[in-house]
Amino acid sequence: MLTFTLKRLLSGVILLIAVATATFFLAHAAIPDPTLGLLGSAATPEAQAALAQKIGTERPVIVQFGDWIAQLLQGNFGDSWRNFQPVSEQIATKLPVTLSVVTVGILISAVLGGVLGVVAGLRPNTWIDRVVKAGAVVLFALPGFWVALVLVMLFAVQLKWFPAVGYTTPEQSFGGWVQSITLPAVALAVGAVVMIAEQLRNAIIQADRQDYVRTLRSRGLPQWRITVHLLRNAAPASLTVLALMFVGLLSGAIVVEQIFALPGIGALTQGSSQNGDIPMLLGITVITVVFVVIVNFLLDILLGWINPKARVK
């Protein structure tokens, strides 16, 4: 198990280095002159030259990359080119908002998707099974921003159950925090619920056809014990989908945060990309990849614990 864990850690580190390197050069290729976005179209050449010298973009890209990597190894993302404040501090103030929405969205997806998937898998070809299969096609195809707008119009504007925009921290009001993240989390979770339910349903139906299940039934085991065995065999596929959904919800949160006016990573990413703030974009990318690596690492360890054969693979 130790060798398996070390291999997963090493692969995560390699992924982080590869993504960070690719993002750095792609960002500089896409924004060859960030001073124009930072100063605006009315900036004079003198002002642009002065800013370029201040932020160091007049140097060769490979030199800038070396300096950035050196800072990154020290846990320093540098300073924002827009306000010259530390990137890490600005991300730290925005990240809890995004993680709140994504975490609640994942919980909603796991609970509802798990319940629907188990019921549909244990009762194939019934009405609830047909509803899950149809919902997996319809709901997953709906654009996330459209779902968010519908939720706002129905539950915020008409019913007034939740605020349409804004964010309340748990320190200010726990109830207000729950209200402010409920609609964004539901908007993120809609597609994930049906995907998890469909995957779990298929995994349970496939496991139910195995010889060992027929053997358990022939021995007279109660249905709840057979269901436990089915869930254990269906868990790897479902957990993999859940991890992929976490990555998808992180990217989807950028759009949802704009609709609900949440002060999270989404707003920070949009503003940084519009202004050419490359250090901020790089910091956000690295932090996002770190979370992806952590989630995948935990998934691999959990799957290795559930199924020892996965350690060999």
Task: List the secondary-structure elements in sequence, H or E.
Answer: HHHHHHHHHHHHH
Global outline: globular
Report the biggest beta sheet as strand number plus sense, adding barrel if it closes.
none
- Could you tell me the number of beta strands? 0
The gyration radius over C-alpha positions equals 24 Å
How would you describe the oligomerization state of the chains in this entry? single chain
Strand pairing plus helix content: what structural class?
Answer: mainly alpha
| Strand-residue proportion | under 5%
| H/I helix tally | 13
Average pLDDT for all residues? 82
The proportion of residues forming helix, as a percent range, comes to: over 70%
Low-confidence stretches: none
Give the terminus-to-terminus CA distance.
12 Å
InterPro entries: BPD_transp_1_N, MetI-like, MetI-like_sf
Main location: membrane
Keywords: Cell membrane, Membrane, Transmembrane, Transmembrane helix, Transport
Family: Belongs to the binding-protein-dependent transport system permease family.
Question: Overview of this structure, please?
Answer:
- By secondary structure, the chain is mostly helical.
- The chain has 13 helices and no strands.
- The protein has helices at residues 2-30, 34-39, 45-55, 61-73, 87-122, 127-141, 144-158, 174-208, 211-218, 223-259, 265-275, 278-306, 309-312.
- Helix 5 crosses helix 8 (174-208), helix 7 packs across helix 8 (174-208) and helix 8 (174-208) packs across helix 10.
- The mean pLDDT is 82.
